[in-house]
Amino acid sequence: xxYTAKAMLLSGSALLSAGLLSLAPGxxxxxxxxxxxxxxxxxxxxxxxxxxxxxxxxxxxxIFDRMVIQDADQSFHGQLATSWETSADGLSWTFKxxxxxxxxxxxxxxxxxxxxxLPKFLGTENAFMTDAIDKVDVIDNLTVKFTMxxxxxxxxxxMASSFMGIPSPKSFDQLGDKFGVTGAVGTxxxxxxxFVVGQQTVxxxxxxxxxxxxxxxxxxPAKLKKxxxxxxxxxxxxxxxxxxxxxxxxxxVPTDFLPRLSTEKGTKVVTxxxxxxxxxxxxxxxxxxxxxxxxxxxxxxxxQKEILASxxxxxxxxxxxxxxxxxxxxxxxxxxxxxxxxxxxxKALDEAGWVMGSDGVRAKAGTRLQxxxxxxxxxxxxxxTEVVQAxxxxxxxxTDITAFDAATITAQxxxxxxxxxxxxxxxxxxxxxxxxxxxxxxxxxxxHSMWVNATSEAxxxxxxxxxxxxxxxxxxxxxxxxxxxxxxxxAPIYQPVQNFAYSQARITMPATVRGTRLQSxxxxxxxxx
Length: 529
Description:
By secondary structure, this protein is α+β, with helices and mostly antiparallel strands. The longest helix is centred in the last third of the chain and has 18 residues, at 470-487. The relative contact order is 0.16. It holds the Pfam family SBP_bac_5.
């Protein structure tokens, strides 16, 4: 196996030796703050700019409030909006805004903020969330009306996205391209004190906070005065830090660490329903994956059951589509599910003219079926990728693994032709993730599959803009999803649950974790002992 590591991030131990985290447990300063470790998928997020960013990390919802937020039962609750209504034809939405809210820079939040904010999405990669809005009218200082180009039954989900965190107009315009890097100003429960990409983010409490939703018990400023969010690319390093008291909480725990954590006295693990899917990107624009037969063979070579059992102890679910299983749009025609079938995989390669060689790797016209298999730095990514490598080899596809840090791999995807296969994960609980990863206009990044197809584009357009009701939207996205499955533009692997762990000796958690993941609505209720 060839294995190359590029541009690795500082590990937790390197941060300590560099003196970036010199506070000792039990010190006066430490007693006033909590230290969290971000999920590995968040490592290397380059900015806290919710309008322009395509990768945001776990601190985003602590800095920025949104119009509404979503609970685990998919219900929506007001944050910066206190109420809303839509017309019977879906062509207008009216939002009442929370009074007496100020940004961290002292500027007021009001209807004029919304008029400034929404047009900023035009021409950005996040514009799809606001495309259906034709104009915004101010009814009064705390009331706005959206007139729609077309009905958007997904409006509230969009408003609840972390990409729809509302920044201060004054600070956003003053900082320009540096907003989100040298400064990030919202109305959230915490203010950004410092941010070092790939290392850590330090937040301090917003003592004027008054815009908590009804999902929070605490309706005032957060209990914690300071939060340091560290970025540690290796799960084993993060686990050791929790065990030895260097950190108070891991915001994400790989499933294979659960047995070890269960034996740690004073450590509590909380499990939430998953919103992630691991999958293999297939670059459809480069050989040999321009051939649908080779893509088909790749998809059916992945043994999801083996990965679930051997790497994750049976915790989580096998993934056989691109969407999380709880979504109605994931309930596709069973014939289109991509599940382990080595006989079908080998047959597809035979039909494509790839002949098995003596070394176990197929060849065609003197060219070996040896391809690049990319992954991200991090224990879980590496382990999954190594198993995928072995499973592909079993049907005659040879691979060379390269691991990149998150920032570097994104730059490589943008080159469009450098990658062939890659193991990735996303976290999202809405079918519009299909538009994000497979729309032709985003080929390169985030459409890493480089999928550009007229039929798919028409189905995507209908799903995104041609749905008048929620039921129509489900049907349209299911049709689009089925089309992508039929073209084998990815290979699904695994759907994990969400695990986080904390020290009961140092942290007091609220009785219930609210929301689809651990975010601001719960973190404002966390106390340090």
